[in-house]
Design a protein that fits this description.
By secondary structure, the protein is an alpha+beta fold. It has one domain. 23% of the residues lie in helices and 31% in strands. It is built from three helices and seven strands, in the order H-E-H-H-E-E-E-E-E-E. The protein has a seven-stranded antiparallel β-sheet. Strand 4 and strand 5 form a beta hairpin. The termini are far apart. 24% of the residues are buried.
């Protein structure tokens, strides 16, 4: 893939923080998790909101046979004690979005600590 095109559309390699979030989600075993882990290795992302949600793309990788569009989710509390959620979206077998949102719609306070995640398989 031409890196000039990536720069033009806003996609960039995943940050260490994003990789840590995805690793925490993928620590759970679910149908397609092995293929998704391979997709994450080459994934690129583009931030789409103030919470840090990302559109993801992973070209030239194996398709994941997941059972649901959102196979895994995590929840935790931010620095204010408010619950937030992190959802991994998979469309047609490919990672497409890492969605982050708070239950009350207010901005997250403080950094995300994947070590505090309660991971839910859907």
């Amino acid at each position: 893939m031409d890196s000039r095109l990536d720069a033009a559309d806003g996609f960039a390699p995943l940050t260490v923080d994003t990789q840590r979030i995805l690793s925490a989600l993928l620590a759970a075993q679910f149908p397609g998790s092995i293929q998704i882990a391979k997709q994450v290795e080459s994934a690129r992302g583009r931030v789409i909101d103030k919470e840090g949600s990302l559109v993801l793309q992973a070209p030239d990788v194996p398709r994941a046979d997941v059972e649901r569009r959102i196979p895994v989710e995590a929840e935790a509390e931010d620095a204010d004690g408010r619950t937030f959620h992190v959802l991994l979206h998979v469309v047609d077998g490919f990672i497409s979005e890492l969605e982050i949102y708070t239950e009350d719609g207010l901005p997250l306070r403080g950094p995300i600590d994947p070590g505090a995640f309660r991971v839910l398989l859907l």
